[in-house]
Structures are given as structure tokens and as C-alpha cells.
């Protein structure tokens, strides 16, 4: 599940686990967690004002290990398991749409591993910080024999400019640590601990918040940067404000 806390102009969205309160939970994105994320993002949007910024992070050693495949596998048959996986794929799509259209800057602070849909959640933010020693970025689909949904591919094309970086992530299943992730253009900075990654995210958020941009204009500009992704997500950029002339 997740919590949303506002400190000044900064919203802290924290993945807290699947409901058991275990700090070592790998924050699988099952249907209840996805629903919790959507609710938190809606709350942040409703409370936004000029200068608002969102930081998304997690408790424990994982940011998120992707969809809840264990739940899918308990369905019994292969077809039933694939149906459950499809449910999560469909349910998660609005999370990306909510982040891309959120009227404030967004920062993901990764305390540890981010895999599959968990990595997609991270790069759907405007900025990403991570720890350099224990955090690993990993797209497991090629190793699991699973194809990518269309919005996954559109998101990686939009958010990672390097063709070779996308190839290594998606076609090699490469496990990428902090410094290498910075060099590949996947994250913005790598730090010595989970706490340092969050502190760096707060510094970024504070600088962004000082600008006190109009949130609806910020969201419009963000969406205009990623037309293919927004098209796949069903988002349309709209003229929402009169410029200062």
C-alpha cells in the first residue's frame, strides 16, 4: 500500500508494502497497491498549488519489484494466471497517466531495487535519484518470457533517450547499478545510501518548488514532450492558461 504526507509544498508518496507492515516488503504492484497509488495521486492533485512537488519513495530495500506475479500464479491454470497479469497491466496504465498529467514536478527516490513495472513507475517521474551500492534497475520480462505492453515500450522510448540503453534494459535484461544508470541516462544521480537518495530528491524538490510554477501549465508542457506516450495513455494536452505577457 502507500501513504501520502504533505510537508510544506512537498508531497511524500511512500510505498509501505502489501498491507503486512513489513519494511522488507518488495512492494509488488498488485491491484490493491495500484488502487492505493491512484488514490494518493488523486489526493495530491486535489491539494496542489503553485510550488507543489511530489516525491515518491518506499520503505525497506526495494522501491518496487514490479507486478504481483505470485498472486497471478496462484490462479491455478496458465490462462487464469495470464488473465490476472492482464488485470494488473490494465490497472497500472492509469497510474502513468496520472503521473504524466499531475500538475506539479515529480521526483522518484529509489531506496533500492526497481524492477519491471517498478522501474517503469520510477522513470515515469520527472527526476530520479537512487542509491549507488545496493539498488539495481532491471527489466525482467525477457528473462521471464513476457512481452511488453504497448505503454511500457512507449514510456521507455519517451524517457530514455539512448537506443543502446533501451536495448540493454529491454533486450538483454541487464541489471544496472547506480553509477551506470546515471551514465546511461536512466536516473539523474546516485548516492551512498537510501537516506542520501531521499535527501537528494528533497533538494531537487525544494529548488523546483521555489519557482512556484502554475501546475496546470507545467503538466501541459510535460505532456507535450511525450506525444507518443500520451497518445498511448489516452492523454491530450490542452491550452489551460493565459501566458504572462
UniProtKB/TrEMBL annotation:
Record's Pfam families?
ECH_1 (PF00378)
Query: Keyword set for this entry?
Result: Isomerase, Lipid metabolism
Gene3D superfamilies from the UniProt entry: 2-enoyl-CoA Hydratase, Chain A, domain 1
Indicate the enzyme's highest-level EC class: isomerase
The pathway noted for it is: Lipid metabolism; fatty acid beta-oxidation
Q: Which InterPro entries match?
A: ClpP/crotonase-like_dom_sf (IPR029045), Enoyl-CoA_hydra/iso (IPR001753)
Q: Which E.C. number(s) belong to this protein?
A: 5.3.3.8
Q: Which reaction does it catalyse?
A: a (3E)-enoyl-CoA = a 4-saturated (2E)-enoyl-CoA; a (3Z)-enoyl-CoA = a 4-saturated (2E)-enoyl-CoA
**SUPFAM superfamilies the UniProt entry points to:** ClpP/crotonase (SSF52096)
**GO CC aspect terms:** peroxisome
Give one GO molecular function term. Answer: delta(3)-delta(2)-enoyl-CoA isomerase activity
Source organism, top-level taxon: Eukaryota
Query: Lipid metabolism among the record's keywords?
Result: yes
Q: Quick one: a GO biological-process term for this protein?
A: fatty acid beta-oxidation
Family membership, please give it.
Answer: Belongs to the enoyl-CoA hydratase/isomerase family.
Q: What is this protein called?
A: Delta(3)-Delta(2)-enoyl-CoA isomerase
Q: Which organism is it from?
A: Rosa chinensis (China rose)
Amino acid at each position: 500500500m502507500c501513504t501520502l504526507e504533505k510537508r510544506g509544498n512537498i508531497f511524500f508518496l511512500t510505498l509501505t508494502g502489501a498491507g503486512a507492515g513489513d519494511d522488507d516488503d518488495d512492494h509488488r504492484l498488485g491491484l490493491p497497491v495500484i488502487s492505493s497509488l491512484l488514490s494518493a495521486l488523486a489526493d495530491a492533485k486535489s491539494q496542489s498549488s503553485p510550488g507543489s512537488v511530489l516525491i515518491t519513495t518506499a520503505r525497506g530495500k526495494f522501491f518496487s519489484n514490479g507486478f504481483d506475479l505470485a498472486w497471478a500464479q496462484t490462479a491455478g491454470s496458465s490462462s487464469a494466471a495470464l488473465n490476472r497479469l492482464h488485470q494488473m497491466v490494465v490497472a497500472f496504465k492509469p497510474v502513468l497517466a496520472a503521473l504524466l498529467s499531475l500538475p506539479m514536478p515529480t521526483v522518484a527516490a529509489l531506496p533500492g531495487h526497481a524492477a519491471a513495472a517498478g522501474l517503469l513507475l520510477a522513470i515515469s517521474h520527472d527526476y530520479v535519484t537512487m542509491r549507488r551500492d545496493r539498488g539495481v534497475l532491471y527489466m525482467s520480462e525477457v528473462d521471464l518470457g513476457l512481452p511488453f505492453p504497448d505503454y511500457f515500450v512507449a514510456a521507455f522510448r519517451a524517457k530514455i533517450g539512448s537506443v543502446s540503453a533501451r536495448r540493454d534494459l529491454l533486450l538483454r535484461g541487464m541489471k544496472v547499478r547506480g553509477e551506470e544508470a546515471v551514465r546511461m541516462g536512466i536516473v539523474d544521480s546516485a548516492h551512498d545510501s537510501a537516506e542520501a537518495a531521499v535527501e537528494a530528491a528533497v533538494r531537487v524538490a525544494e529548488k523546483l518548488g521555489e519557482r512556484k510554477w502554475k501546475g496546470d501549465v507545467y503538466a501541459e508542457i510535460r505532456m507535450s514532450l511525450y506525444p507518443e506516450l500520451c497518445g498511448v495513455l489516452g492523454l491530450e494536452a490542452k491550452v489551460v492558461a493565459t501566458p504572462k505577457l
